Amino acid sequence: MSTEQPFIVCAIQYTRLIALILSGWVVIASLSQYSHVSLSFFAIFAEDTQTLSTHPLTLLQEAVQDRRLISTLVAVQASIVCPFFLLYSQSEDSERPSAYNTAINLVFQFFLPLGLSLSWLFCVMFDKKITVALINSVIYQESYPSGPPVCEIAQWMSIHCSRDCSIVSAATQGSKYALIAVFLLEAAFVWIAIFQHGATMTLGAIRLPVQGEEGGDDSLLPASKE
Questions:
Q1: Nearest 5°: phi and psi at 45?
Q2: pTM of structure
Q3: Range of the domain at 67
Q4: Which residue, among 15, 2, 9, 27, has the nearest Cα to 184 in the 3D structure?
Q5: What is the pLDDT of residue 120?
């Protein structure tokens, strides 16, 4: 990337660093929360327990927790690897690339944060839709053809809300929204860098080479009159 625009370069690098930190926080918080609220396989299918572990809603809830964790880990894996690779490759790149290679690199760097923001948007939408589907699940309605008892609805809702409305869960969800904003901001910075690089290439193409400049050709200069 061109060093003629240090502000844009620093802005892109800082957004990638912020995305890397937020992604690390999300994966740690998600794994910690999952290990805290999830039930083991033997606890769910234990025959001697009289708790909600034999309730069909618990089976559905545990399956939903698994899928929510999977969708989060899929999004966070790319969000950690891609910014880290870009930051590392920029620090190790000692040779100045050509203008053509820089333009192609910027185009790919523009689509990369857009794809990551879409993956996090899908993750957030999946969390919301799966929570609504869990509350209005067909399994829960089929368990009580005449209507579920009010006491069991209140009991299940209190357990569900106590799990999802914790401080860690709220901070994790907020970090997911923040990651979407950071990746969109990075895409905007890269878009500005593309325009600036295009303007630099245009000015360089129309500029006449000067005698004595590195790479200049004296044959292109007009002949001086004696």
A1: -100, 20
A2: 0.68
A3: 6-200
A4: 15
A5: 92
> Rounded to whole angstroms, how far apart are CA atoms 195 and 166?
44
- Write down the pLDDT at residue 207: 52
- Amino acid in position 47: E
Give the total number of structural domains in the chain.
1
State the average pLDDT over residues 21-28: 92
In this predicted structure, what is the pLDDT of residue 106?
85
Residue 225, domain member (yes or no): no
11 against 62, higher pLDDT: 11
At 53, list the tokens: 């572990």
84 CB-near residues (< 8 Å, 6+ apart)? 20
Say how far apart CA 180 and CA 121 lie, in whole Å.
7
Start-to-end C-alpha separation, the chain: 44
Longest dimension (CA), the chain: 109
The residue with tokens 């990075």 is 186
Query: At which residue do the structure tokens 């033997």 appear?
Result: 42
The reported pLDDT for the residue numbered 194 is: 87
Higher-pLDDT residue of 157 and 179 is: 179
Within-domain flag for 126: yes
- Give domain status of residue 208, yes or no: no
* Average pLDDT, integer, range 194-203: 79
Only one residue has tokens 């990746």, namely 183
Would residue 155 count as lying in a domain? yes
| Tokens 């857009």 -> residue | 114
H helices present in the chain, as ranges: 6-37, 41-44, 56-92, 99-135, 138-143, 150-164, 167-206
* Structural Rg of the chain based on CA atoms: 27
